[in-house]
Structure formats: structure tokens, C-alpha cells
Specification:
With 139 residues, the chain is of the alpha/beta class. The chain contains four helices and six strands; from the N terminus they run βββαβαβαβα. The chain has a six-stranded mixed beta sheet with strand order 1-2-3-4-5-6. β4, α2 and β5 form a beta-alpha-beta unit.
Length: 139
């Protein structure tokens, strides 16, 4: 599943004008399943105007056999308080359903947001999706 706020929707460099390039305020969200893990890859800029795609992807019903939701933030260049609130609310909803929500690969600006707000004490943060999906990472 691929969701995009705006017209471009692909993964390019900001403002380069090529097809699939991000434009300011644009967010792309892709969802896939890897065994018992729903991976939600987020790219671009996550703010009030672009948040609906991520909100929709994280609010999806809990599928049978789902143990974790892993939010891949490696391509997320910007996140404001709206994005942070979506992640924290989704974490609470996932826990209520018996599923863990974790994040992977945040860039320095997002790491700083998590640290300044204390979200880094609530969210389990992995350095990358590969590390998070390693056999011993789900323990």
C-alpha cells in the first residue's frame, strides 16, 4: 500500500523537479508486511498538513498474527509535534491491541525531537529496519 499527501509521492530529492521528487510538505507512506511485523515506511516531511497518510497507515486494523508495527523513519526529513503525537497515540492503541509499535532509522533532527520531548524514553528506537527485523530484535 502506498499513501501520499500531495502530488509527487515518490522518493526523490527536495525540489529537484523530477518525477517522484518530494515537494515541501509532502509525505509518502508505504506499508508492507514482513512476517509478524507491519513495516510502515515514512518519507518526506511530516507535519499538520501531511499527517493523514501516516495516521491512516497506523490506524489500520490489527491483522492476525501481527506482533509489531515498525515505523521506518530513515527517509523522514522533518517531523513536527503533529507527527510525534500520531506516533505516540498509535503506540498506545497498538499496546491496547497487544501489539508493540517501534521506530527505526530516525535522522538526527527526528532523534533530537524525540530526545527534547522525552519520546525517546517511551518509544523503542532501532538504528535501522535491518537491525529491528533481526531475529533477536523482537525480544
Amino acid at each position: 500500500m502506498h499513501l501520499s499527501a500531495g502530488d509527487a509521492g515518490g522518493a526523490g530529492e527536495a525540489g529537484d523537479g523530477s518525477p517522484g521528487a518530494y515537494r515541501p510538505g509532502e509525505l509518502s507512506v508505504e506499508v508492507r508486511r514482513v512476517g509478524p511485523v507491519r513495516v510502515v515506511a515514512v518519507g518526506g516531511e511530516l507535519d499538520h498538513d501531511s499527517a493523514d497518510g501516516l495516521r491512516t497507515a497506523l490506524a489500520g486494523p490489527t491483522e492476525e498474527g501481527l506482533a509489531r508495527i515498525l515505523v521506518d523513519l530513515a527517509e523522514l526529513r522533518f517531523c513536527d509535534s503533529t507527527g510525534l503525537n500520531i506516533l505516540l497515540r498509535a503506540r498506545g492503541e497498538a499496546e491496547a491491541a497487544g501489539v508493540r509499535l517501534e521506530v527505526a532509522g530516525p535522522r538526527p533532527a527526528v532523534v533530537r525531537l524525540f530526545a527534547v520531548t522525552g519520546a525517546d524514553t517511551v518509544l523503542r528506537i532501532h538504528p535501522s529496519v535491518a537491525v529491528a527485523l533481526a531475529p533477536d530484535a523482537g525480544a
